[in-house]
Predict the structure of Nitronate monooxygenase.
Amino acid sequence: MRTRIAERLGCDVPIFAFSHCRDVVVAVTKAGGFGVLGAATFGPEQLEAELRWIDDHIEGRPYGVDVIIPTKYDAKAEAETGRTDLHDLIPPEHKAFMKRILDEAGVPELPEDERERVHREIMEGRGAMTPEGARKLVRTALAHPQVKLVVSALGAPPPDIVAELKQRDVMLGALCGKPAHAVRQKEAGVELIIAQGTEAGGHTGDISTLVLVPQVIDAVNNEIPVLAAGGIARGSQVAAALALGAEGVWCGTIWLGTQESELNTFEKEAIFRARTEDAVRRRARTGKPVRMLKSKLSEAWEEPGAPSYLLPPLQGILYNEAHARVVRAQRGDLFSFPAGQVVGAMAGETTVKDVMYQMQLEYLEAMERLVALQPKE
Amino acid sequence: MRTRIAERLGCDVPIFAFSHCRDVVVAVTKAGGFGVLGAATFGPEQLEAELRWIDDHIEGRPYGVDVIIPTKYDAKAEAETGRTDLHDLIPPEHKAFMKRILDEAGVPELPEDERERVHREIMEGRGAMTPEGARKLVRTALAHPQVKLVVSALGAPPPDIVAELKQRDVMLGALCGKPAHAVRQKEAGVELIIAQGTEAGGHTGDISTLVLVPQVIDAVNNEIPVLAAGGIARGSQVAAALALGAEGVWCGTIWLGTQESELNTFEKEAIFRARTEDAVRRRARTGKPVRMLKSKLSEAWEEPGAPSYLLPPLQGILYNEAHARVVRAQRGDLFSFPAGQVVGAMAGETTVKDVMYQMQLEYLEAMERLVALQPKE
């Protein structure tokens, strides 16, 4: 399944792995795929450290970086970023609501030192999620010559970033959930579209991958490559994506269950326990719809009388602090983590190598099945 | 793409067409596919007339009938069916709400004679939607020897129906939206599972076709054939479905735009105008989630203060009377018709023959593309 995009980027198979975990990025890339580090929650210093580690382990192979350049953003939060503690911009009503959910469920507060550490990490990451913060991340990535792809998770980036990537011959990708987005992204200079269906984990739209991919390919006149994202975790789904005309697949959820993943045992067990129908789209995590495991925490925000959602980054700051409390208390009933609908088919820990092998094996089986249906010459 | 199910049922290609329109059923079957008449809105007498017409035109080929055997049903409505006018069981608040939407939008009332005709047709159809009504429909279908497949749209039918079909050697199919449904259906004697993704028109669940199909195949241990439904209207999507392991595809929305379709020009134009994101899941039409074109009518029922939805068949009776008013007034802004997400790619009138030809042509192109990616021997 060596497609044009695999040739262009220099990987063996067009299996793109989105992960916040450097170990996954390295392991996928070394297994012949293309790892993409989700950098949105890092500050520039941490990203620099992660990329240096990847450079040291990836044996000269190419990889990618994914940044979030938000289009909808709380303007006051942006203006104040770096000057004030963004946490202070969260309305007291929202803080009280989140606190009440956790207090009533008997989830202990974080110890002071851990609270401060979590708070600092979130602030570094969220500060990077402003347009200016994203620029810094892109520049950090560009200093690493093995970074051959930069992906913008929320639409086309501003022209200065596009120009800088072009100059350095780094490919620019963007995620899209509607054909109209793809048209705008192509016009803005995006060279690789990741058509992400509603079944994906994380920020998603309404349109399913099966419907979206052919529409996006048509929308860009098949002039730039399109990857399929959402609902892809096994070989038959890879074959389906290529049948739709995608040049490769973009997978995220499946890596969460690997040994290499950043999740701890409690978090992995919640993932393995989850059914497909538990991965729902909710706004509690960032203020925009994110497909994630539903829990008492996510559902409380859907109840009548709950406060309205905040804009990014404030909802995310509020949510992530609560999430840290939930994870520390190992409370599965309140654990909401971004995951796609493929989560229902993940039953136990694997390795990146296993996943890559099984995917390609099942892909070949699917191809055999398809070829057997062809009329004999 | 002649799969086992195509061989078993005696069609050339495993493209199953669900339609309420006998002309579509005949045209698809004559073009090598397998037409399935959606009989849920017919009374037994009308179904008998439709099937007789199909028998007269289908040139001895096999076809199918789809019935709705409801699992959730307003018990009072069922007890009263045939004895009282079901319309009288609809609470006055609900009637007043629906009337107010249309009155305020300036939609004229139906003339008295047309109101009576619509009312009579709905009652005949809805009466058939009780468990007992569905039995009558199945018996009507079984009197037609070219009916080789009976499909139950809402889960496994009761054991007496299963036994009767088996005795007559008519295949029994059922639609499912979750792997667990498929397991129960197989245990109940269902021989063909139609795994229907959330992107489908009509009653749907949450899980996308790309995720659902492999899960359902695994759930039934690949022991009975599975068709993919939802998001399939073109050849690349057919190829994707077969790549997933489906033995064929089940399409509904695409036929609405054909010359043969039962829709009038006003209705077809609304279909061609609709974008993918206009096909949303709402409960206004039957009381259960149905993917349909959104309109002021469907959205009014989602507003705070709207009455709660009625159980089948009462919500459907209320909705269908309003719908007849909307269609007569040709009010596109209030027109909500069941349609899947593929609706966004339908831009103008076609014929059944065209659709069948294009689907197979694009399927072959997709196969060529896939085969070209295979390593050379």
Observations:
- The first helix of chain A runs from residue 4 to 9.
- Chain A has a mean pLDDT of 93.
- Chain A touches chain B through 47 residues (CB under 8 Å).
